[in-house]
Amino acid sequence: MIPFDDPRLTAMGLLTEVHAGLVARMSPALVSAGLSDVDFGTLIRLARSPRRSLRMGDLAAQTGLSTSGVTRVVDRLERDGLVVRQACASDRRASYAALTDKGAEKLQTLLPQHLTDIEDLFTGLLTEEQLDQFLTTLRIIRDVVHPCATAGAIEPGQTVRP
């Protein structure tokens, strides 16, 4: 019989509680700016990508959305002028989502509060060593459970080709 206090259950439970708590505490600032968590996640992924753009399929993989789900998000962000679609020069079947200047400005207005929230509720609670180890641990797990999460992103040490 498996004990109910199995540390694997505790680890999963704690991770779920932390995620839900962080989302609940950080979402109001995003909502007041007219963005959902998914909208913000999409915009920040684009902002942190080479040339502030990603192939739609890579964006879907990184956000964990289906291709139709990411299409709906990009449609909404495009209507608001935060994102544009760009055709792929080498593959007419593919398209890119690219962050507009307006989208970058929207993120810049949100980031000070968002970073304060992250610091107050998360990273500021850890020592530098704890944070480094935590990030390493999260990447190990992420690479197994969500191997496409870095699709289209630049790897450390790589340079962006023009």
Structure summary:
Helices cover 60% and strands 8% of the residues.
Explain what you see.
- By secondary structure, the protein is mainly alpha-helical.
- 60% of the residues lie in helices and 8% in strands.
- The chain contains 6 helices and 3 strands; from the N terminus they run H-H-E-H-H-E-E-H-H.
- It has helices at 7-32, 37-47, 56-63, 67-79, 101-121, 128-145; strands at residues 53-55, 83-87, 95-99.
- It has a 3-stranded antiparallel sheet with strand order 1-3-2.
- A hairpin with a 7-residue loop joins strand 2 and strand 3.
- The chain is globular.
- The protein starts with 6 loop residues before the first helix and ends in a 17-residue tail after the last helix.
- Residues 155-162 have low confidence and may be disordered.
